[in-house]
Amino acid sequence: MIRTIDHIAIAVADLDEAVELYEKTLGLRVTHREHVDSFNVDIATFEIGGTAIELLEGKSDDSAVRKFVETRGPGLHHIAFVVDDIEKSLATLRAQGVRLIDETPRRGKEDTLVAFIHPKSTQKVLYELVQLNKKR
Ligand code: CO
Known about the structure:
By secondary structure, the protein is an alpha+beta fold.
């Protein structure tokens, strides 16, 4: 079901400040920036060897990412797996009694479909499933 890791997401308080840190300190370069409406987050992606680090800043008070940063501080937020057929993967997980945050996929960055698994079912790690745009 899982093909590879699409990205590792890090929640930050200030995206520009974090991007500067990653560029100056780690020598990485941003490969993609986007505002993702469905989650009300700004993202900056650094592609690294077939996967990516994705920095996330919540843009509203009701954003889960902002709440995360306010409660726990910035840090590792989730790991995203690429799957071929997200509906099928969700059905497979549901059949095993796995709790899902998203019962149906939401639109993610760059026309992907995404859904989160509830961390209560994965020993407290937040995992995201990503179905890449079929055109690519
Ligand atoms: Co993600």
